[in-house]
Write a structure and sequence with these properties.
Elements: E1 3-5, E2 13-17, H1 23-35, E3 39-43, H2 49-60, E4 64-68, E5 73-77, E6 87-91, H3 96-106, E7 110-116, H4 127-135, E8 140-142, E9 151-156, E10 161-165, H5 172-180, E11 188-192, H6 199-211, E12 217-221, E13 224-229, E14 239-241, H7 246-253, H8 255-259, E15 261-266, H9 279-285, E16 289-293, E17 296-300, E18 312-314, H10 322-328, E19 336-339, H11 351-361, E20 365-368, E21 373-376, E22 385-386, H12 392-399, E23 409-411, H13 423-428
Parallel strand pairs: 2-15, 3-14, 6-7, 10-11, 18-19, 22-23
Antiparallel strand pairs: 1-23, 3-5, 4-5, 7-9, 8-9, 11-13, 12-13, 15-17, 16-17, 19-21, 20-21
Helix pairs in contact: 1-2, 1-3, 1-6, 2-3, 3-5, 4-5, 5-6, 10-12
């Protein structure tokens, strides 16, 4: 077993950082570029496990991709909506975006495509997306447990039509179908009757599609959503810049809340298409001072004499921020209630159970609810060895605790390679 002892901060942190590109935008942009007419050049690309899985998946589908990790660029020769490969075996690792986006993408082909992943991926549900594809004329068979990967897509092109999701366990299923829909033979209408978790990620998908010149009529109100995609409609190649990852930025933006001082993240601001860029609003509610600009965010520690406050917050639109907020809550006055994030049980690990166990190891009292957690900070924190459960966000979020607590050890730190391979080097640079 590998473990990493993290140093604590000797004083307030003060830093200006620019972070790697967004995983979520990178994988969306590669899908739309792959379906476009012409050659696209993507800049600011994230190179990590999840994006490497997407690159290899597209290459197996016959899409020509030239990647330059040193320059953080990718060139994609689009296939104009027609997958070159008539059969492929695709390994998605534990990348939810790769599994779900490529499941819908393969429906555009003509042939048989097998998609598989890690043991954990085989526990993450995909039935809602499979049913939607079947309604649109694409047979799909399960090669293992019903409702879960691995899958075989028996593709003959996407015919189009109307699909209905009740309350899909992941917004990635809606995004996957949206990105494939313009290449269907006729219009596609997608309705979501129940709650759409992580809805800002769907808005991100629409923004990337719009950048590649595909328009979607959308209406979201009273918890219901409708998307109409006219088809066939062609993506157009372009040069596209990917902004820094807002989810990964949260660990740096939260550092002043824990250690004092201020941190500025360059390239991420009020113009961001990422919902997690609004995370700074949560820190503001907890007592931090925020300075917002179109392409820059700065977090200052609470004013002298004022501490962090525990809050009650619905994080359904920002579920990837739950672990960050939960660790910051260790240093707040009063409990913090995190609501409406039951879908975290279906992520890289059961994040609610994992958080409760590891926060408890540091001395906190944690109550697990059906939809979230209540974190009650301890009077005295105790150092601990933190299990990461092969979950990058467990490792990165608990690094924050080390800023104020000597002796925090992160087990299996290499799990951060999923989205941020050099996280610990950059995080320690704050000190």
């Amino acid at each position: 077993m590998c473990a990493l002892l993290l140093p604590s901060a000797s004083g307030p942190v003060n830093a200006v950082v620019r972070l790697p590109g967004s995983k979520s935008i990178t994988n969306r942009a590669m899908i739309t570029a792959a379906l476009a007419k012409g050659k696209s050049r993507l800049t600011g690309v994230l190179f990590a496990d999840d994006t490497q899985h997407m690159i290899v998946a597209l290459q197996r589908l016959g899409v020509a991709i030239t990647a330059d990790p040193d320059a953080c660029t990718v060139e994609v020769a689009g296939c104009q909506g027609h997958l070159p490969a008539s059969d492929a075996e695709i390994y998605c690792g534990n990348s939810g975006t790769t599994m779900r986006f490529c499941t819908a993408l393969c429906a555009l082909g003509f042939g048989e495509y097998v998609l598989d992943g890690t043991a954990r991926m085989q526990e993450r549900p995909i039935e809602d997306l499979v049913q939607a594809l079947q309604w649109l004329g694409t047979p799909v068979s399960y090669l293992g447990r019903e409702g879960y990967p691995p899958l075989c897509i028996h593709a003959r092109g996407l015919k189009g039509g109307q699909v209905h999701f009740d309350s899909p366990p992941s917004s990635q299923m809606v995004s996957a179908l949206l990105m494939a829909a313009p290449c269907a033979r006729s219009d596609v209408m997608i309705e979501v009757g129940g709650q759409l978790v992580s809805e800002p990620y769907v808005r991100m998908t629409l923004a990337v599609m719009d950048a590649f010149e595909v328009t979607v009529l959308d209406r979201v109100e009273s918890g219901r959503a409708r998307y109409i995609v006219s088809a066939p409609q062609g993506y157009q190649a372009r040069r596209y810049a990917i902004e820094p990852d807002a989810s990964n930025a949260s660990y740096f933006l939260a550092a002043p809340a824990v250690a004092g001082g201020s941190v500025t993240v360059e390239g991420l601001g009020t113009d961001s298409i990422q919902g997690d860029a609004h995370f700074v609003g949560i820190l503001e509610r907890m007592g931090c001072r925020i300075h917002r600009e179109p392409h820059r965010l700065t977090v200052h520690a609470p004013p002298a004499g004022e501490g962090l406050r525990g809050i009650d917050v619905d994080l359904n639109h920002m579920p990837d921020m739950v672990q960050t907020v939960a660790v910051v809550a260790l240093f707040a006055e009063g409990p913090t209630r995190l609501r409406n994030v039951a879908n975290l049980r279906l992520k890289e690990t059961d994040r609610l159970a994992a958080l409760a166990h590891e926060l408890g190891a540091l001395g906190a009292k944690v109550q697990v609810h059906s939809d979230g957690l209540t974190v009650c900070p301890p009077t005295r924190l105790v150092p601990a060895k933190i299990e990461t459960y092969d979950d990058h966000r467990m490792a990165m979020s608990f690094a924050l605790a080390s800023l104020r607590l000597d002796g925090v050890v992160i087990k299996e730190p290499a799990c951060v390679s999923k989205t941020f391979p050099d996280f610990f080097e950059r995080f320690k640079a704050l000190l």
